[in-house]
């Protein structure tokens, strides 16, 4: 029997000042993305995104239909982006076998009925949004997408950004998805912080050393808050919330968005001098 989808309801900026640390964590942090032998999913009412993880271990796992999304099968009305952050594994979609190495991304479009995850040591991060049409499945290996070198070592944010699902790459209805890797000695995932008023973004932090943490900034620029995030934990960032983060060491993260448009550079900067 599938584990029920955790529900996270939409929030607004006026709620931030009254939230305790535990309130923030319960609302925006997904601490247990990968549970051995399970598919764990969270439904956020921000842009009706479903995110989570599949950790098949020694037995394959099938992505079934869920009553929470009122579909006979998961991709009946949805599309799905998958990034493997563990060992090599396979995804079988309607009989087609896709092999995903660490860092590879697979897009599956609306209408695919059967999705099975396999691979002892594989950890598949899942990001899904409603879809109005069907686009072809596509697999992108690390380095095969659009690669952008950003930041500078002087400001501790030198990073390699791999764009996989986006307007000039793998086609989708809503999803924009990729992986960013910080270079050794860099800790900031973006600066200045920014918002995407037209879409929700979710982060999965990984390659975070066991003794390290990422401090994730959120909230409005004049009412900022933070969350302390460990390895393989995810964050829901509403469209109105700024986002940036700094780690106690270098790390990687999967970024994924859905909403009004797919233009990667559609963002509104929040200069550090404006933050409070």
UniProtKB/TrEMBL annotation:
Residues reported to bind Zn(2+): 194, 196, 201, 243
Keyword entries, A-Z: Isomerase, Metal-binding, Zinc
NCBIfam families xrefs: PRK00924.1
Pathways involved: Glycan metabolism; pectin degradation; 2-dehydro-3-deoxy-D-gluconate from pectin: step 4/5
Cofactor: Zn(2+)
Enzyme superclass (EC): isomerase
Role this protein plays: Catalyzes the isomerization of 5-dehydro-4-deoxy-D-glucuronate to 3-deoxy-D-glycero-2,5-hexodiulosonate.
Species whose genome carries this gene: Microbacterium candidum
Protein name from the UniProt record: 4-deoxy-L-threo-5-hexosulose-uronate ketol-isomerase
Reaction(s) catalysed by this chain's protein: 5-dehydro-4-deoxy-D-glucuronate = 3-deoxy-D-glycero-2,5-hexodiulosonate
Its EC number(s): 5.3.1.17
GO molecular function: 4-deoxy-L-threo-5-hexosulose-uronate ketol-isomerase activity
């Amino acid at each position: 029997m599938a584990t029920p989808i955790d529900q996270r309801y939409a929030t607004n900026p006026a709620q931030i000042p009254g939230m305790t640390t535990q309130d923030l964590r319960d609302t925006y942090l997904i601490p247990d993305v990968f549970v051995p032998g399970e598919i764990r999913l969270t439904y956020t009412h921000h842009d009706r995104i479903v995110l989570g993880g599949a950790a098949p271990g020694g037995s394959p796992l099938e992505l079934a239909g869920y009553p929470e999304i009122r579909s006979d099968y998961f991709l009946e009305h949805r599309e799905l982006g998958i990034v493997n952050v563990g060992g090599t594994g396979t995804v079988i979609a309607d009989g087609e076998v896709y092999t995903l190495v660490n860092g590879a991304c697979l897009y599956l479009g609306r209408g695919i009925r059967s999705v099975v995850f396999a691979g002892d040591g594989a950890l598949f991060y899942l990001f899904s949004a409603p879809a109005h049409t069907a686009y072809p499945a596509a697999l992108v290996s690390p380095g095969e997408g659009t690669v952008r070198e950003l930041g500078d070592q002087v400001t501790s944010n030198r990073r390699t950004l791999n764009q996989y699902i986006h307007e000039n790459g793998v086609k989708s209805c809503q999803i924009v998805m990729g992986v960013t890797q910080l270079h050794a000695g860099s800790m900031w995932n973006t600066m200045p912080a920014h918002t995407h008023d037209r879409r929700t973004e979710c982060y999965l932090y990984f390659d975070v050393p066991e003794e390290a943490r990422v401090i994730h900034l959120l909230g409005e620029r004049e009412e900022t808050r933070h969350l302390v995030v460990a390895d393989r934990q995810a964050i829901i960032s509403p469209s109105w919330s700024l986002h940036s983060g700094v780690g106690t060491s270098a790390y990687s993260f999967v970024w994924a968005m859905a909403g009004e448009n797919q233009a990667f550079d559609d963002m509104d900067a929040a200069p550090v001098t404006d933050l409070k």
